[in-house]
Amino acid sequence: MRRIALNTFALSLIASPLLAQEGEAASKPGLLALQGGLMFWTLVIFVLVFLVLKSFAFGPITKAVADREQALLDAIEAAKKDRDDAAKLLAEHRAAIEAARGEAQRFIAEARAQAEKMKSDMLEQTHAQQAELLERARRDIESEKTKAIDELRREAIDLALAGASKVIEKNLDDAQNRKLVESYLSSIK
Amino acid sequence: MRFVRLSKLAIATLLFAAPALSHAQDSAAPVQAPAAHATEKAGPPDFITPHISDGSKIDIPSFSMADNFTREIELPKWAPVQIGPLTLDLSPTKHVVMISIAGLLCMLTLILAARSQARSALTGKPPKGFANGIEAMVLYIRNEVILPNVGHHGEGFVPFLLTVFFFILFCNLLGLIPYGATATSNISVTATLAVVSFLVIEIAGMRALGFGYIKTIVYWPSDMPLSIKLPITFIMTPVELLGKFTKPVALAIRLFANMIAGHVVILALISIVFTFGLWAVAPFPVLAATGIMMLELFVAFLQAFVFCLLVSVFIGQLREGAH
Predict the structure, then answer these.
(1) What is the pLDDT of residues B198-233, one digit of tens each?
(2) How far is CA A75 from CA A62, B121, B124, B126, in A?
(3) In this structure, are residues B154 and B160 in contact, taking their beta carbons and an 8 Å threshold?
(4) Are residues A54 and A19 in the same domain?
């Protein structure tokens, strides 16, 4: 009920200038009088502004904001992707460096082993050569010794024969005597 | 520095009042004043009412002391147009001119801002400057005022409500510059805006509720026995109907009264100087008027915001009504 009373009051309040205007129709319009022409122009201009702004201002502004939001989202997405890529790349590089380090370690170890082997081989070879040289020297010495002994023996025989022939002065068959002496010599060997 | 700024403001305020003062002279001059008006009312001439009401003249700046820095231009007078039973006088008036300027400024500002934003969006450069300020306002009104209040599918109402906001804002601000007039301090203008808003609100309600819209007028409580239901319906239906119309009326009156009040206060303060006719009195009213001017600047934004907010709320309320 209060609402009705209030509304009625409000309405009468609003209408009062109009009513008052009707009363003094001849005098100039008051502040609360509605002017048809002004209302018409207000309507026309407002609708015009609305239509123009709707198609040329608010659409583009909203679109620009949406575009910018999208661009930011894209940029964030791209940055995230780049970061992931970089992390992946870093991990790859780290792994590669690790692998390279292992490889180098392996190479060094291999080289060391090879050097070790080479060293031992060379030592062995040297030993073998040395031994061979010694052996050869020994053999040479041996052969030279036998040769010298043989020589000495032949010389001794010759000397003995010459001595014996001088001593005996007996006409003996050289060849037979030689045989005799040789057999003797071999018997004393 | 502060003093310089204050005195600049005071000068601006005086300039604002210059056309009114010129009116004062006009009405004081016995030749121009209507005979009945001048003779009936004794005492100082009323130069506030002519300044805040509509007229067929507009004030433009003049650089001559003799004119009080104001020159009046008589707007063309056209013959009234007969549309059905209505006779419309479509001749341009001061407020028609002001609305047109406000509309043009509105379009210019927003379209330039929109183009600047679109260009920066296209080139991928960060947007800048004035356009960003406009964008911030548009986005604030859209995201914080319209969309939460209108509710579901509020996107369709955004252009209309934003237009309401900026149109009213520019009309309000035009009244604050020297030689300007506040079209929104004219009840015809605010009433038209209110009627348009009313139509938008009700049509939005009809579209959202369909046949259920009739329930927002005819009160029909379905969980009561018929013997109670009938009288209640009988009582409440006029109330509901009145409630529908009070909303736009309140919108119109609120905007109109707010815009007219500040101007009356400023003009009254300045006329204190002339009532006393003493230079010594001048500083106080001028400083006070400067302060009120600041308040008016705030009110210009506030009232545009409030109008837009209330229409959003009304649309939202009516559409939620059935749920």
Answers:
(1) 999 999 988 888 888 888 888 777 777 788 888 888
(2) 20, 14, 11, 13
(3) no
(4) no
> Quick check: A75 pLDDT over 60?
yes
Give the residue from B77, B134, B158, B189 with the most A CB atoms within 10 Å of its CB, the best one to mutate: B189
Same domain, A25 and A49: no
Cα of first residue to Cα of last residue in chain B, in angstroms, is 60
* pLDDT greater at residue A172 or residue A188: A188
The answer on A90 and A48 residing in a single domain is yes
Which DSSP symbol is given to B95?
A: H
Query: Across the interface, which of A8, A35, A65 has its CB nearest the CB of B188?
Result: A35
Q: Which of B73, B322, B286, B300 is nearest to B179 (CA)?
A: B73
Give CA–CA dist B15/B300, Å, rounded.
19
- Kindly tell me if the per-residue pLDDT of B103 is higher than 90: yes
Q: Name the residue among B106, B117, B166 with its Cβ closest to that of A64.
A: B117
pLDDT digits (tens, 9 = 90+) for A129-164: 999 999 999 999 999 888 888 888 888 888 888 877
Judge contact between B99 and B89, C-beta under 8 A: no
Contact pairs from chain A to chain B, CB under 8 Å: 156
**Residue B272's pLDDT band (cuts 50, 70, 90):** confident
Q: Is B196 on the interface with A (CB under 8 A)?
A: yes
Q: Do A31 and B53 touch (CB under 8 A)?
A: yes
Question: Per residue in A87-125, is it b (16+ CB within 10 Å) or e — as a string?
Answer: eeeeeeeeeeeeeeeeeeeeeeeeeeeeeeeeeeeeeee
Q: What is the pairing mode between strands B57-61 and B70-74?
A: antiparallel
pLDDT, residue B20, reads: 56
Find chain A residues with C-beta within 8 A of B191's C-beta.
Answer: 34, 39
Cβ distance A58 to B138 less than 8 Å, yes or no, reads yes
For testing contact with chain B, the best of A18, A45, A73 (most B CBs within 10 A): A45
β-partners of residue B61 are B70
Between CA B203 and CA A69 the distance in angstroms is 33
Q: Provide the ipTM.
A: 0.80
> Which residues form the domain of A163?
35-188
In this structure, what token pair is assigned to residue A46?
């407002």
Structure tokens belonging to residue A6: 């209030």
A87 and A155 both lie in a single domain: yes
Distance CA B31, CA B173 (A): 34
Same domain flag for A16 and A88: no
Using CA coordinates, name the residue in chain A closest to B100.
A45
B54 touches chain A (CB under 8 A): yes
pLDDT greater than 90 at residue A98: yes
Domain residue ranges of chain B, discontinuous segments joined by +: 2-320
Q: Are residues A27 and A6 in the same domain?
A: yes
Q: Does B317 touch chain A (CB under 8 A)?
A: no
